[in-house]
Design brief:
The chain is built from twelve helices and twelve strands. With about 325 residues, it is an alpha/beta fold. Helix 1 packs across helix 12. The structure holds nicotinamide-adenine-dinucleotide (NAD). The site of nicotinamide-adenine-dinucleotide has 31 residues, from helix 4 and helix 6.
């Protein structure tokens, strides 16, 4: 089987080559998949894509024209795919439903701890022989209320970790996780979660119903000074309205691993370039904002799991076996 990979980095090649026991012919393209680059898929049996590759109707039509019948998403989310179009064209989609929910949950906690105790600032200060504690005050997590929006695999692990800090966990989800209910987690309406929480962490998928779930109205419902964490998908948050919330002090701190307009920025070294995105530039100017570039998943365990599962998905497809990780819609 010949597979063309899009948006690849050195670590993709490293892990996929290591676990390619099937002996597939893998070609690694650095370019992101979009209409202009779709023709790189010519001559392959399958393609493999990541979170910011574009799989809209135009791209899918081109891929179908080149004979691509299966797309292996080496990620969990599939919000970047026009599912109706894929169905119409008879393209099979397989994904990696869970690679390391611990990695993402732990990264959300890392954002909270860093923003709260300002260790990133302390690190730089001390290296500069500045041993002052001025403006490094944090707060005890013990006793605080943490609102978890989306209590699936990642949200549930995140809730457990935060319980370990002595936090009270409140949750909002369209489905109540029985394990969390057993642990005494209280489910409530989104509005109540927002009014009660000192920290709000987003772990729901990006769907039409969750697009801009954090907006002008929901920000107003949040406690003044609350911390907002997003390790899920950028468009869950209306970034411009969050900036207004930060300017007014209503949002006390913001930690994001995902960003609404991340496609043109994340996973690239732009240190010698002029960044023309004024929204991220404004976000970066706040002392109480911490941004990481979609690295929550980035652990050895997760990369191993992504490579093994993706290759197994392609093997199952190739052998005509039942597809356990097919995106069903
Ligand atoms: P999951 O499917 O196990 O859980 C998602 C939860 O969200 C489910 O409990 C579901 O019922 C709930 N949900 C669905 N619609 C909702 C709504 N309208 N409001 C509230 N909750 C709703 O998924 P997961 O593995 O926990 O992953 C969660 C998200 O994390 C993914 O969708 C993905 O966007 C993101 N993610 C980010 C990274 C990263 O590196 N930053 C890595 C992996 C996943």
């Amino acid at each position: 089987m010949k597979v063309a990979f899009f948006s690849t980095k050195s670590y993709d090649r490293q892990y996929f080559d290591q676990y390619n026991s099937q002996g597939f012919e893998l070609t690694y393209y650095k370019v992101r998949l979009e209409e202009e680059t779709a023709e790189f898929a010519k001559g392959y049996d399958a393609i493999c894509t990541f979170v910011n590759d574009r799989l809209g109707a135009d791209v899918l039509e081109k891929l179908a024209g080149y004979g691509i019948k299966v797309i292996a998403l080496r990620c969990a989310g599939f919000n970047n795919v026009d599912l109706e179009k894929a169905k119409e064209l008879g393209i099979t989609l397989v994904r990696v439903p869970a690679y390391s929910p611990h990695a993402v949950a732990e990264h959300a906690v890392a954002l909270i701890l860093t923003l709260n105790r300002k260790t990133h600032k302390a690190y730089n200060r001390v290296r500069d022989n500045n041993f002052s504690l001025e403006r490094l005050t944090g707060f005890d997590l013990n006793g605080k209320t943490v609102g978890v929006v989306g209590t699936g695999k990642i949200g549930a692990i995140f809730a457990q970790i935060m319980r370990g800090f002595g936090c009270k966990i409140v949750a909002y989800d369209v489905y109540q996780n029985p394990e969390l209910l057993e642990q005494g987690v209280e489910y409530m309406e989104m509005q109540d979660l927002l009014t009660q929480s000192d920290i709000v962490s987003l772990h729901c998928p990006l769907l039409p119903s969750t697009y801009h779930i954090i907006n002008k109205e929901t920000i107003k419902m949040m406690k003044r000074g609350a911390m907002l964490i997003n390790t899920s998908r950028g468009p869950l948050v209306n970034t411009k309205q969050v900036i207004k919330g930060l300017k007014s002090g209503h949002i006390g701190a913001l930690g994001i691993d995902v960003y609404e307009m991340e496609e043109k920025l994340f996973f690239r070294d732009l240190s010698e370039k002029i960044v023309t995105d004024d929204v991220i530039a404004r976000l970066l100017s706040f002392p109480n904002v911490l941004i990481t570039s979609h690295q929550a998943f980035f652990t050895d365990e997760a990369l191993t799991q992504i490579a093994k599962t993706t290759l197994k998905n392609l093997e199952d497809y190739n052998e005509g076996r039942e597809l356990t990780n097919e995106v069903s819609f």
